[in-house]
Request: fold
Amino acid sequence: MKFRLYRYHPESGEKPFMQDVDLDLDPAGKMLLDALLAIKAQDETLSLRRSCREGVCGSDAMNVNGKNRLACITPLSELKQPIEVRPLPGLPVIRDLIVDMEPFYKQYRSIKPWLINDDPEPEVERLQSPEDRALLDGAYECILCACCTTACPSFWWNPEKFVGPAGLLQAYRFIADSRDEATAARLDNLEDPYRLYRCHGIMNCVDACPKGLNPTEAIGRIKSLLVKRRV
Amino acid sequence: MKSATGSHTGTGTWLVQRATAVVLAVALPGLMIPFLAAMPLDFAGWQALFAPLWLRMLILLTGAALALHAWVGMRDIFMDYIHPTGLRLALYLAVMVTLAGSVVWLAAVLFGAALGSAA
Reply:
C-alpha cells in the first residue's frame, strides 16, 4: 500500500515535507492506525498520538485524504491510494502528526464544561426525568477529538475568538441539562459576534464528526434560545 | 487564564440577516411577475410600469432589505478575514457608505423627476 505522510521535525531545522512510504500490508479488516503503527515499527521517528484504538479516546484524529478522521476507525479498504495523512489543520504542528491542542482546549474551557448548580447537594443523585435526559442525546457523546473544530474555516480564521463547533456543542450540552442552573450566564458567555456568530452554517463539522454528531444543529438551538430571550 | 465572555451583541445582526433573507426570497420573485408580464418594454412601458406608488415602495423596501443583508454579509467576511481593527473599521465604513448611498440613489431614481412626473 502507498502512503504519503506529513513529516516535520522541528529540531532538524528543515521545513515540513511529504514522505512517500510503501508498506506491504493486506488492507482487509485493518484500520489506518494499524498501517501507521506498522510504518512506525519500520521507522520509529514517525510520531503520532493514539491510545484506545477503538474510536473512544479521540487521540488519533488526523487529516486523511483531505478529511479529518480517527485513524483507528478508518478502514484501510475504503481509502484511495496513495493515502495522504496530515496533522489536523488549523492547529500548530508539534511534530509529524502531533498538533498542539491548546487553542482547542482553551475554547473548550471557556464554555465552563461542568455542571453549575448552587443548590444544596441532595441526599441522592440530582435526578432527571427520562425526557430531560433525552435532551442530552447527541450532545454528550463528544470525545473532544477536534475533528470538527479543525475542519471549520471560521475556527481557522479566528481560533482565539471563535469557540468552534466542539466547544459550542458542549456549551449546548450544559444549557440543555435540566440540572444546570447557569443557562442565562452561559448564554451571556456565548452571545458575541465572534464567540458564537462566526458560525456560518458551513457544516464541515457535521461532515467530519467521527461520532456522527451534529454541532450545527446545537449551534442553531443556542441561536434560537438567544432570539427567544431577546424578542 | 483570563475568562472569555460574550459582548452581548450579535443576535440582532443575525436576526436582521435572517429576516432580510426572507423578505428577499419573497419579494424578488414577486417583483419579477409585473416585469415579466409587461415584457417587452419600451420607454413608455417602463414609465407605466413604475407609475403605481406601491410598486415603487416595494422596490425601495426590497432594495433596503438587500442593502441590510449585504451589510451583514460583508461584515461577516471582514470579521473572518480582515484582522487589523483599523483596516476593518475603514472597510465597514466604505461598505456602509456604498450601501446607504445605493439605497438613497435608488430612492432618488424611483421618486425623482422622470418617474415622479409620470405618476
About this structure: The first strand of chain A starts at residue 2 and ends at 7. The longest helix of chain A spans residues 215-230.
